[in-house]
Amino acid sequence: MSHAKQAEIFNKNEAKVNWHDKALWYVREKRDNSAHNVKGWEHLRDSASGIKAHVLSNLDEYLIQFEQNALQNGIKVHWASDAEEHNTIIHEILKDHKAEKVVKSKSMLTEECHLNPYLEEKGIEVIDTDLGERIVQLAKEPPSHIVLPAIHKTKEEVDVLFQEHLGTKASQGDPEYLTNAARKHLRGKFLNADVAITGVNFAVADTGGFVVCTNEGNADMGAHLAKVHIACMGIEKIIPKEGHLGIFLRLLARSATGQPITTYSSHFNKPTEGKEIHIVIVDNGRTEQLSREDFRASLHCIRCGACMNTCPIYRRSGGHSYDATIPGPIGSILSPGKDLKKHSSLPFASTLCGSCSNVCPVKINIHEQLYKWRQIIVKEQPQPVVKKSILKMTGTVFSKPGLYSFIGKSARFALKYAPKSLIYSKLNAWGKARDLPEVKNENFDDWYKKRSKNNG
Amino acid sequence: MKVGLFIPCYINQLYPQVGIATLELLEKLGVTVYYPQGQTCCGQPLGNSGYEEDSKGACQVFVENFKEYDYIVGPSGSCIYHVKHHFDILEQTPDVIKVRNNAYEMCEFIVKVLGITDVGASFPHKVGLHKSCHGLRGLKLGSCSERMDPYYSTEEELLNQVKGLELMPLTRKDECCGFGGTFSVFEEAISVKMGKDRIHDHLDSGVEVITGADHSCLMHMEGLINRNKQPLKVMHIAEILNTSM
């Protein structure tokens, strides 16, 4: 289903749309306030963007440097060219350790690779330990936001969900009670897990270590309790030096939630004695995106979600309307690169207002890339016949001033004199909720000609 | 200084009063304004819909019409933005480069090129300014709420000098109205919802007249206001600046 159709369905409940919009706008405002408190915020963005561009231009070298240093630290490094290989590698590690229970902290990459269903099919229990992710996991839904996975759910809905799955009492959505219930439930899962899977926020080439940022400490709970820690990262997660974290960590949490820093920014450098750390480095379409000059910068993304919080369309259509692992503006420039047909409506789910590009901490020109995807999509994907012919015809009319003048007059005549029932028919999407402009007797050209005549 | 007046297609056909106000205002400010005949469209509706290739003819017509002028001034931020940023699809001849460099949104032309902020207008009403996205974030007519830059606003500089005009503060200073060209039709539900929300912000702030430098956004909001019979008027900023004492 296209984004427009999904959005229309979401908009049937206007109260929920208002609630969703306000919840995310609140996060956007927190981000603004927090960024205002940093002197040289725009300079930080420039630096971060520059570093990312540099990394992408030298990715091969940095990846090899990272691998060498990680291996030296006693970390096991795996390379996966696609999602399937990623999943197989993880399953192999689990088999080697006869692991049956896995706890996982937030990782959009494992979502992208559909790791959970893959492992579950093999009889392995995978528990998402981020509270929001656990909520959507219980509801059997995908995350609707990359930082706030359950933002589409009200606390009352969570209440009902927990009653069903965790045996809680009805609490009218008491957040403290519900969080405590989740905490107790997850504690047991942490203690019994064989393996912990985490994502990676930053992989540092010059140390071979990596950093995982969470607010709940769930990555740490998992990684420190289980014998084996598997960290999954896309190839673009590399930064050259540990010192660069001073730029990225300052930007990440402020952009995401308005916090100065995530509650936990955990550095993993080498396994403790008797334990193992594995890193799975995944391509899954990233080098292809890297090869597309116009869309290369989309790989700068540090997954802060700021573009979602600011996007007036995302806020009013919800993350699920995008039907993609990564929703919102950044997802709309990443997803078409993976499956152009499936995601061909996404670059059109924007007014090109540019707010996403302005909040982006790594300065991805998101709205310009949306424009560029549109040009590709109309060429490579079948378009609705009416839309296509109208726009093509318009192109011809605009290239011929005489014809344009004639069509303009006829259209104004039609708008002025056609019966209302015809103008406001089902075919006119504009007129469903909006009046058409009142048509004047003359256009500007007519007025100007008259004036020139009168002025002699 | 040879100034060519660019009247976007929808203003020519549907809002001639905006074109008239622009022309009269510029003349009032001492500018000799030429209006090249045979103007069509800058190609924006096609480009934004993905049919950039089909807009080349329109872009060429634009360049032919305006290549002689030192300044090209138009009352629509998004159209000017399109000329400046998306005419890269044409071969970059000296004429094309000149046209792209010389295109100005009307307010910016008055403030930056003419160096005027007080145009001698009087408009004793409570006004809400809609900062259209392409003008704001594209042409940088003002500072954007997302960026940590010093505050400025070209349109406010002009409106603040209008006698009797009270500029009302909004809760969301520069959120998109949801017009977005063909977006308004193909993403109808969201477009309408965004427009309604913007209008509510103005109503809640006690605004009597919504204004802005891009009439396409205003057309979208006016359509909603008229349908819902809301107590608001919509006027292009040129119409306000062209009112006399």
TrEMBL record, chain A:
For this UniProt entry, which residues form the secretion signal? none
| A Pfam family matched in the record | Fer4_8
Instruction: Tell me the keywords, alphabetical order.
Output: 4Fe-4S, Electron transport, Iron, Iron-sulfur, Metal-binding, Repeat, Transport
Q: Output the Gene Ontology terms for molecular function.
A: 4 iron, 4 sulfur cluster binding; metal ion binding
Q: Which GO terms describe its biological process?
A: lactate metabolic process
The domain of life is Bacteria
Q: Which InterPro entries match?
A: 4Fe4S_Fe-S-bd, 4Fe4S_Fe_S_CS, FTHF_cligase-like_sf, Helical_ferredxn, LUD_dom, LutB/LldF, LutB_C, NagB/RpiA_transferase-like
Ranges for domain 4Fe-4S ferredoxin-type come to 291-312
Q: Give the Gene3D superfamilies listed for this entry.
A: Alpha-helical ferredoxin, NagB/RpiA/CoA transferase-like
Q: Which NCBIfam families match?
A: LutB/LldF family L-lactate oxidation iron-sulfur protein (TIGR00273)
| Name used for this protein in its record | Iron-sulfur cluster-binding protein
The organism is: Maribacter luteus
UniProtKB/TrEMBL annotation, chain B:
Q: Where is it found, in Gene Ontology cellular component terms?
A: cytosol
Q: Which domain of life is it from?
A: Bacteria
Q: What is this protein called?
A: (Fe-S)-binding protein
Source species of the chain: Maribacter luteus
Q: InterPro entries, per this entry?
A: Cys_rich_dom
- Which stretches make up the Cysteine-rich domain? 3-83, 127-221
The beginning of the lineage is: Bacteria, Pseudomonadati, Bacteroidota, Flavobacteriia, Flavobacteriales
- Spell out the molecular function terms from Gene Ontology: oxidoreductase activity
Signal sequence annotation: none
